[in-house]
Specification:
MutS, DNA mismatch repair protein, domain I, 6-stranded antiparallel sheet, 6 helices, 6 strands, flat
Length: 206
């Protein structure tokens, strides 16, 4: 289901909680997220600007196994879309709008800019100073080539597998599950699965 379809459903949502299946998580948006927090549990709520619909959406997510433990009445139940009767009833028309306004908007990730080496930075600064004084033509100097590194001896299959196992343990230990969104958790698991496949013993055979 597209974000536009979700927004259209939530615009006319008067008293229900709509949950949408995304991977292994159930996601609640807009008024459904507000009612879920008030009715059941205060999961982490995020607010993002959705470019293709030109609007901000708030949402929360929780593992699929949690749904069965909720004390709630199902209005309808499908494989990818579940509707619950909300135990919480808004006290005023502006209650949801005030709650949404209090959720911090996540800033879009800035594109990564490649860093210049110290030698390139020094050469550029020296050239700018000389060019401003008229001592040099307005043509930047060529970058100083970096010294070549000695060839790296590839690891054996056993060493590579051991290295990857240690990296997997480290990444799992350092992953802060409590501060991540459901989508970030899904991407993290997918990345680990891909890396595990690439570093399995069978993938090193020629």
């Amino acid at each position: 289901m597209t974000k536009q379809q979700v927004y259209d459903i939530e615009t006319g949502n008067d008293d229900a909680i709509h949950l949408f299946r995304e991977g292994t998580f159930w996601i609640a948006y807009e008024r459904s997220a507000f009612r879920f927090v008030r009715s059941f549990k205060s999961y982490r709520v995020t607010k993002k600007y959705i470019q293709n619909i030109g609007r901000e959406l708030v949402s929360l997510g929780f593992p699929g196994t949690i749904l069965a433990s909720l004390a709630c009445e199902f209005i309808s139940q499908g494989a990818a879309h579940v509707v619950l009767r909300s135990p919480w009833v808004e006290q005023g028309a502006d209650e949801f709008a005030e709650w949404k306004a209090g959720v911090e908007l996540l800033a879009p990730k800035a594109p990564k800019v490649p860093k210049k080496s110290a030698a390139e930075t020094l050469d550029a600064a020296s050239f700018a100073e000389s060019a401003s004084s008229g001592a040099l033509p307005a043509t930047p100097p060529a970058a100083t080539p970096e010294p070549s590194e000695p060839p790296i001896t590839p690891m054996t299959t056993e060493a590579s597998s051991a290295f990857w196992a240690q990296e997997l343990v480290t990444r799992l230990r350092d992953f802060n599950l409590e501060s991540k969104t459901p989508m970030e958790c899904m991407f993290f698991v997918a990345e680990l699965k891909k890396k595990a496949s690439e570093n399995s013993p069978g993938s090193h055979t020629s």
